[in-house]
Amino acid sequence: MSDLRSKVQDINPELKAQDIKTFAGKASNIYESINIIARRARFLSTELKIELNGKLEEFAETSDRIEEVLENKEQIEISKFYERIPSPSVIATHEFLNDQLDFSYKNQKVENQEEDV
To answer: Is 13 within 8 Å of 90 (Cβ atoms)?
Structure first.
């Protein structure tokens, strides 16, 4: 995730209609395509959350009073960056449609081995 800035720069954060045939052509069928995108989006979401929490922990201060919350410009910039990036599902869809995702099936290897026997 360290190259997140360069990775998401060319991705439009707006959702747009897609031709369903392009999704079906990349995998066996549309349902597998959507499953692949959903799994990648969940992974990205988890990674983004971990990365954001790690960066924001640097600014965390333990305080007994709510009034003592200080605004830090660097913290605000980090938060704004993560608000502006496209959603994980948009990133995953972009990666899938541009052949940037490698996927395989666990059972496919087993079935091919059984046919050889």
So the answer is: yes
- Give the C-alpha separation, 15 to 10, whole Å: 14
* Residue 13 DSSP symbol: -
H or E element at residue 19: none
Strand, helix or coil at 112? helix
pLDDT (tens digit per residue) in 26-82: 888 889 899 999 999 999 999 989 988 888 887 766 555 555 456 677 888 888 888
Within 10 angstroms of residue 23's Cβ, the number of other Cβ atoms is 20
Give CA 107 to chain center in angstroms. Answer: 25
